[in-house]
Please model this.
Amino acid sequence: MTNETEIILSHWKNSVPDDRIAHLIKDATRALVRSLQNELKKYGVPFSQWSILRVLWTQDGLSQRELSSMAGIMESTTANVVRQMENKGYISRRHLGKNKRKRHVFLTLKGRKLENKLVPLAEEVNKIARKNITQKEIKLLRDCLLTMIENLGSE
Model:
């Protein structure tokens, strides 16, 4: 266990056991992202590129704006990351239809092949994160988080 993890756990268990849930979710997310980043480094793929690849593996050909929204990344950051990915040969961008300003992002064969290498890394991180948690608890957590998203989205 890393020193950072010990500090975070001590904070939540001892200092502020009843603090706001948003902070706990943020820390859990940071731990998950950090673990996945360490695995992705082995393939030279930053987390920002992972976020975009993950979306494109399920829905190829999105506009940069749609991709930004679905990946949860600011549009300016998406433009930068997409450019880097194009330079690496993971994606290509092209115009569809008559709108010459709107470019759509498509996976190349090289980008598509990364799925078989990178998805198992994410699955392993999730497996580690779920260790000692029952399926019933996972379902409850998932349902609670989805309800929170729905509640906050309807305000």
About this structure: The chain has one domain: 19-153. The longest strand covers residues 91-95.
